[in-house]
Amino acid sequence: MNKNAVIPAVRGFKDLEKAIAAPSDTIFLLEGEIIHLRNIVESVKKNKKKIYLHMDLIKGIKEDEASIHFLAKEIKVDGIISTRTSSLLFAKKYGLTTVQRGFLLDSHSLKTVVNTAINCKPDYIELLPSFSYPKLRHIKEETGTEVILGGFIDRTDELPMLFEAGAIAVSTSRPALWNWSKDSIN
């Protein structure tokens, strides 16, 4: 995953072409149905990009080992995004990159995100909402895991602050932000 990347978070076919044209080497697929996955993944990979599926939001896929095995071996996704420890552990078993998605609401949810990451050792933690960025350094220190920020990222002028807080990348479903680069702030 490229440092300071804006990762397109795609909800189906509508914005897929824009996401493929964006500079990020990674795309997050947040919604869709199993029937369309093969075509989406092939299209993304044909353009030399990686695709991570949000296991909790794709219709027709369960968070069980058989589904993740199928996604890894037949659909050939690059990674899995999930809030569920079991999905992340199965994904690691099949060689997929793992993104633990966590929502910060209070100190209890902060502890849950940290403890889950310590136990399942994801490759990345996606922390939502993005305005919880003041807790990012604490999470990185406790877990040793790079953090992606997502949710409520509306404007390009918010991006430098999120990267300065220590985010390796941000994810957003706003196509207007997908072509941002660190060089564009000058």
From TrEMBL:
Alphabetical UniProt keywords: Glycerol metabolism, RNA-binding, Transcription, Transcription regulation
Gene3D superfamilies in UniProt = Aldolase class I (3.20.20.70)
Entry GO MF terms: RNA binding; transcription antitermination factor activity, RNA binding
An example GO BP is:
positive regulation of DNA-templated transcription
Explain the purpose of this protein.
Answer: Regulates expression of the glpD operon. In the presence of glycerol 3-phosphate (G3P) causes antitermination of transcription of glpD at the inverted repeat of the leader region to enhance its transcription. Binds and stabilizes glpD leader mRNA.
Report the protein name in the record.
Glycerol uptake operon antiterminator regulatory protein
| Species this chain originates from | Effusibacillus lacus
Task: Output the lineage of the source organism.
Answer: Bacteria, Bacillati, Bacillota, Bacilli, Bacillales
